[in-house]
Amino acid sequence: MSNLKKRNSSFELLRIISMFMIVIHHFTYHGTMWSQYSSTNHAFNAAGAYFVLLGKTGVDIFVMLGAYFLVDKRFNFRRPISLILTTLLYSFTIFLIIYSCLPKLLEPTHMTLLKALLPFPIPNGYWFVNSYIFMLICMPFLNKIINSFSKRRIKQLIITLTILWSIVPTLLAILPTKPDFSTDSIGFSGGTFFLLLYLIGAYIKKNGRDIRTSKSLFYLVCIIIFSVFLTSLGVQTRQSFKVLSLVSTIFNPISLIVAIFIFSFFTKFNFHSVLINYISGSMFGVYLIHDNTFLRPYIWKQLVNASKITQANSFISFALVSSIEVFVICLMIDIIFRRILLKWPLKELTQLISNLFTKIFK
Fold first, then answer.
1. How many other C-beta atoms lie within 10 A of the C-beta of residue 189?
2. Rounded to an integer, what distance in angstroms lies between the CA atom of residue 33 and that of residue 25?
């Protein structure tokens, strides 16, 4: 429990909040956004736009948090291996449970099982995990850049990459694209964007005061929130709804700026709560459970049945309550299954494989 008491609970609380933002994003994205369209219910349009934007904001914050704590540490194989083992555990446990109890979700079942196990048993569908592991592999090189470059050079690098990997992809998504040109031509992908988030999180760690005291950032965030609100209220056609949806579901500069503001705001506080710190340790588990490729259609379209509420005035309250329920259930599953029942074997296996890789690379 000593480590739980030492950690700054302000960051751990932010980690919990960011994961809940991701959950409510999935409620909207997987449950309501693509099921039906409302041209008259402006409350639904506005709330849906905010909830989807919250998802990318939550992802940005979650990755920045990792960078904030990793920038001063040496690379250790234990981190990516623990991530991979936890992903494997949930991916195949959930798959086998669904395969045994709800085979209709896996039609045709035998072909799905064959694809899952061959040519080697690597899970599919967790883009976040793939991108995060890529970031962890690049961690020593990123730390070298951060500790070698001047503050001015790092700012220039962040601004350049933001233009290339956030602003340009957003514009290309909503405007007619040029033939034979795509965002991967300028190096954009989920993994490379996480490198940008790492640089931003590390910059906040090194120069947080500059951002916290920036009045221009505060005013910019206020303008963004107000503009999104007006835009979402004005969604009248399928085309404008499509544009708003595209902006909301990629790594857009709106979510990025809001994430930087929220993250820098939380760096001003320092308090300690064992409960918050303990709950925070299950946020990755919450993600792996509720966003599992096979499980999420069952959660949002059958258990929650989010699409039934798109025309109702109680959309916001229904979204919040349903997302809290999913969040809490996934939290309890992770605590009981991974952190209590399988705590020791996972820890020992992680350490064993980590030691093996360390010896090989030495």
1. 17
2. 10
The token duo for 278 is 């303990």
DSSP, res 185: G
CA distances 115 to 97, 122, 190, 322, Å, are 16, 10, 24, 32
Task: State the residue for tokens 């039609």.
Answer: 107
Cα angle 25, 61, 143 (rounded to 5 degrees) comes to 145
Mean pLDDT over residues 269-288, rounded?
94
Going by C-alpha positions, the residue among 54, 14, 138 that lies closest to residue 323 is: 54
Contact yes or no for 87/126 (Cβ under 8 A): yes
For 270, residues 6+ apart whose C-beta sits below 8 A from its C-beta are 8, 10
* Burial (0-12, 13-18, 19+ Cβ within 10 Å), 197: buried
95 and 293 in contact (C-beta within 8 Å)? no
- Smallest CA-to-CA distance from 196 within 147, 162, 163 is with 162
Higher pLDDT, 245 or 286: 286
Q: Which two tokens stand for residue 62?
A: 């979650």
Residue closest to 136 by CA, chosen among 79, 64, 193, 73: 79
327 neighbors 23 (Cβ within 8 angstroms): yes
Q: pTM of the full predicted structure?
A: 0.88
Q: Which residues, at least 6 apart from 267, have a Cβ–Cβ distance to it below 8 Å?
A: 10, 11, 204, 208, 212
Query: Does residue 30 contact residue 297 with C-beta atoms inside 8 Å?
Result: yes
Q: Which two tokens stand for residue 29?
A: 């994205």
Helix axes 283-290, 315-334, angle to 10 degrees: 110
Q: How far is CA 336 from the centre of its chain?
A: 23
What integer pLDDT is reported at residue 279 of this predicted model? Answer: 96
CA nearest to 208, candidates 9, 4, 3, 11: 11
